[in-house]
Here is the input.
Amino acid sequence: QYRINFPLLCNGAINLKPILIDGSYETDETRCEHWQCNNTYTRCDGFLLCEDGADEINCPDSYCPPFHHPCIFFNDTSVLSCLPINRAGDGIIDCVGASDEPKRCRMSDEYKVYERFNCFNDTQCIDTRYLCNGNQNCKFNDDETICKNHTGFWQTLCSFSSSTGIERDDFLCHLGRWYPKLARTNFLIRNMPIYPLLLQTTTTTTTTFTESVESQVNPMENNAMINIQNNNDPWLCNQGVPIQIGIDRNQFKRICLCPPSYYGDECQYENQRVSLTLQIQATSGRRNVFVFIIILVDNGGQIQSHDYIEYLPTVDCKTKFDVYLLYSMRPKNSSKAYSVQIHAFNKITMSYRASWIYPIQFPFLPVYRLSVQLIIPFSNAIPLKSFALKCNHGQCYNYVNNQSLTYCLCQPGWSGVECTKQYKCECAPTSICFDQSICVCPLNRYGPRCYFHHYSCHSETCMNGGQCIPGDERRRASRMNRPRCICTPEYFGNQCQNRRREKPTELHISFDKKIAIPASLFIHFITIDHLENPVQNSTVKKIGFDQNSLSMKTSVIFHIAFADISKTYYLLVLQSQAVISSNISTKIVPSHRCASIFELFNESISNQPLIKRIKYYHIPCQQRHDLVCFYDSTQICLCDLSHQANCFDFDHNVIGDCKKHNLCENDGHCFLDDMECPTSFLCACPDCYYGTVCQFSTKQLSLTLDAILGYRILPHLTFSQQPFVVKIAMITTIIIFCLGILSSFFSFLTFRTQKTRDVGCGLYLYASSITSMITLCVFLMKFSFLVAFQMKIIRKDIISHVQCRILDFLLRFLLSNFDWLNGCVAVERALNVSKGITFDKAKSKRIAKRMIFIVLFVTFLTHIHDVIHRQLVDDEEAERTLCITKYSSLLKIFDNIITIFHFSFPFFINFFSTVFLIIRATRIRSNAKKDETFKRLLREQFLHHKHVLISTTLLVLLASPRIIISFTSGCMKSARDAWFYLIGYFISFIPSMLFLIIFILPSKLYTAEFNKIRKELCKRHN
Here is the structure.
């Protein structure tokens, strides 16, 4: 064989075909110097692999006392004796046939299985089949002297010994079988540490109800009798049903009920039609029921014919539905183009899900056959905002199978391609008017106008919490006419009457404090079977952002379980007995991490081919007694209690099993709960993405509160029950708002005075103080809306849509505007110092007024795309609705460039303006006072311009964390990282909060004006 099987390595027999590597042939028996001969797979297997036979002593069925081997001594060949282990493998033959020196004969030819008897005082080894055959094969005839009058070794000695049980004869009989077992050996759990130690096993009983659906449900029966004529003529009515209609008491008329494919008095003409075969698959909504409206429509929007199918995912996933769609005219109008449209609705929620279109590609065919497989989308279709098709009284959608085509889903009472034709809706209340002649009925109604009620579901129909689904009244003779049950996971059967025989194993996984809790966790279950290779079953589970542990159920019978966090493996469970219906509590701890071979070996070993590298795998377990497991590209190895490695094949490339219908976005891995009849799926998202289908991203340079806190706020709970991070965020927001409003308001009053605005710098600060107040108000509104919206205090309505588009845009716009205005202040101060007495104040004010307008205009234009592409997106699984932006790839690049521009340039303007101001002012003073040192002048300039330096330095320091977080963190890999990014987000508002401290208090002029205003306010108050 060519496959490397770990249990067969270095066992004394060549099981692997030679492989040429670097000029030499390698097998499973080469380079075994680091392999212990006494290991899990050679221990007590009846073959002495070790030179002293250490692998065969102290075995459960051993004839001899501890540390002894069976032996027939030369001085008494009539009895079986015992030889101490210290005399075995010492190069001296002490036993007949050299049984204590097994390598003497084995070295001659490893492939000759029976050559195990070493002749006395000779190097010759003979075939054990020649023992006691009456012929001398050894030089000293010792092959016959041990026979005790027996001839024919296999025919007499072995059969005799097996009947008498004489140990000596039994030893001789099995002497020829002392060779490695050539049968396939698989992975075994022996001598392994058990983890976890405590394991609770639960047994369950099965309760079976024998009542059938038929005995419990009495559907409506049609008592009317129809006189169907016996059809002795097979050609009569041409596959139709002949019936007789009574004209009077004595006269009857025969007519034919034709199938959809034929028409005429005797069904003799074939209908032009579309023959549709439909198979449907749902990936979510185990307890949902869908109805599919199937219509044949021409290019003018005229419906030719229609039909519908009711679909239950748990029952109908393998069903193929056959539908015939006829044309409204015979023959059909060949000048028109036709297509089949399929529209899906959820009968439980009475909501629209999706649509498909299939054009009739060969209209000249009288019968067009169409086979379609539909995959029901995970969520309801989202109407398009900008589209070429004008839907007057409806909404525009894309087709699932052709995103380039759009159509109008009209409001009730309207129809047509653009929803311009009005009609009177005659469908029953609670139903949906899809078209003038088509009604979508709720679950408990049926009929052309949904006025008939279903009476087939009773309280006894579905047991044990099962949900009853009425049958399709159109199919009286079909099983689909019977009511059907959607069972809970614990039960099955037509009526959910059977409890599953084995209760699933409950696995409770907690995390050590040193291990970051991931958003999703891969779990690999390994089932051991000594007759087969280990079977690997892998699954993935999501961990809620408010959870610090994971509880799951599995019906998989397993022995070993690994946790996989971004390809870092941790041993979860290791049991010698199969885990069935158990309750296991385990913990992911750093000490149970499986190391990579690249951590354990140097490159000269780790880069070798597997056949050479694997021979070193016992060394890590021997050198590191705390090592639990390690892995390479194809194997995972466990360290046993003897500090030896025990390895098995392992598939590291676990990928999604949704095949070509990957429902996850942004390269997420999709996993179905069932390959044949899936009813749910789960997405394992890569870093920087989250959401049910990985639809949300944190790769943007400017994270919003929705991305940072959206998943930490728990719905339907009071504020006191919210996580600690939410409470701290609320307190911090209130503090920033209160202090910031006071600071900005007093700054606003200060810069209203004419004295503080005699130069352009005062105008910039005046505009900046107004921007600061507006920013803080918008910030408080944004945080309040987010908390109330995620706690489900307010509902999703037009106000929530407006706040989503406006508030985040205003925050980005105002913060950028604030930074640029402060940068203008730094530039003007630098110019003031540079020009000195030549500085023109009037010109400075004129330029400032223009620059304020330019800053407002540019920042507004560069952020306006945020308003256009920001929207509310639902995450149904997590019961969240987040306000996010959806950009194309080019627009995402543009947004990143704009963000970098607005972050970086004001920062560098402040920084370089400060450096320029100090250096320029010092040089001017040094030219005036040449007798003073540069260091002294520099100190004087620091003191003289401290108000400028303090403000710009503070702005640089406060902007630095934002720059660092934006450009070094890459993205928020999980909503659990909220603290780090929340701090960075709040830092953005600290300059607005500290406006008074940054710009007024360091300046003597501004401080004097501030004190004057403060005193005036105190006088008014008194």
Summary: DSSP finds 22 helices and 47 strands in the chain. Residues 514-672 form one domain. The first strand starts at residue 19 and ends at 21. The CA atoms of residues 355 and 675 lie 24 Å apart.
